[in-house]
Every structure is written in C-alpha cells, then in structure tokens.
Amino acid sequence: MILVVTPLELQSRWYQELLPLDGEVIVDVGANVGELSRFFATASSREPNRVLSVEPLVENIVEIQAKIAALPGASERWTIAPVAVSSRDHKVRLRLGRSDDGDMTTAHNSVVIERSAARAADEREVEARTLRALCPDATVIKLDIEGHEYAVLDQALDELGSVKAWAIELHMTDRRLSDTIAALRSRGFRVFGAGRRRSDPNGPWVTAEVPPNLEWANLPVAATHHDGSVFKMLHVVARRA
Prior knowledge:
Elements: E1 2-3, H1 8-18, E2 25-29, H2 35-42, E3 50-54, H3 58-70, E4 78-81, E5 84-85, E6 90-96, E7 110-113, E8 123-129, H4 131-134, E9 140-143, H5 149-156, E10 165-171, H6 177-186, E11 189-196, E12 206-209, E13 223-224, E14 230-231, E15 233-240
Parallel strand pairs: 2-3, 2-9, 3-4, 5-8, 9-10
Antiparallel strand pairs: 1-11, 6-7, 6-8, 10-15, 11-12, 11-15, 13-14
C-alpha cells in the first residue's frame, strides 16, 4: 500500500467510514470553499451535525455562504468563523496561494507565515483565534492549514477533551512525524492513515494504523517544487480508542 493524496469524493468516503458523524459538533478548520463542510452538514443518518466552517479568506467565505443558503435548513446548524486558527488569539499573516494564471484575486489557499518587515502583495493580515475560543464543545475537528497544524495541536490537544476524532492533513516540516503521532497516542487516540493499494491506484482510500515510529523519510514524495524541494503529506484520522 502507498500513502497518497486523493480527490475530495474519496476523502469524504473515508471520513464516512472512520469519523463519528451523527449529532456531532464538527469544526472544519481551513474550510476553503466549504465542500467538506457541506459533506459534514449532510453526512448524518440520524441526528443532524452542527458544523462550524473556519476560513479567513473573504473570497472563500462568499462561496461557503452560498452553499449554506442552497441547503434547506442549514443556516440553523452550519455557521462560519471568518478567522484563522492559531495557538493564541492574535493577528497572523497569511501568504495567499496563486491560481494557475498567477492571479492572487482568485486564490483559495493560504498559509500562516512569520511576520516580515513589510507586507508583500501576496500577504494578508487576519484575526486568529484558538479552537477553544471558537468551539469549546467540538467533538470532531478537521485540520487542513498547510503546516500550521502543529502549533494548533500543541495548544488544543489538552484543552479540548470533548474531541472524539481529529482528521488532519499533516504537512512535512522539520518536525518529527513520530512526535506528532506520539502526542495523539498518549492522549488516547488511535491514529490511522489513508492509503491506496498499489494494484488499485484509483480505488478507494484504504485505512492502515500508523506505526508509532513513522517518519517523513518513510513516505513517498507527493510533489516536487520548481526549486527541487519535495513536498510530503500524510492524511490521518486520530480516533478515541
């Protein structure tokens, strides 16, 4: 089996198998344009979920609002927090992603960066809040925040005891992957990774429990940047044992 990044539909199916999705309080951090938030809002088979989309980019918020308006009754249980998430309440600087034509006005992605002396054209300052401040009763949290997830986890794992499951895109940094896995395991979570069978590269996500000693060097390269540097990512669900 090889670990991969796969389309949204396969991601949703994997979540349906692994995450508690009935009557949950779900926080979608890094909601982007709200596709997964909509899945969370409609995934329950019995009791409806309450969903909070956390997204700092106004361009994306407009699209989330349209999805809420298009789903009957959603406005009563699906809301938006127009902020970033961080380890404390403060202002953070985001670097915006670029569209294929380089136009930042159509960007839908951003990453928290260190403050520079002068703000560049592709940077934006936004308010940030802790997860505890945004939703202290969260039971399921999805994190997709381009490497800033480690700062959030360090602060939130002990503060949010009500969380039954985390769905996290772990991005390769200089942080040891095994340290993050150990932090989750020590708090009572089993950690599962998403993969696919080599014999069925376009098939459904396959679940494998993540070994405690897994490191970035053990994972395949997901992409190579123009400067020759490589990108790796591991998609995990950490679920209460």
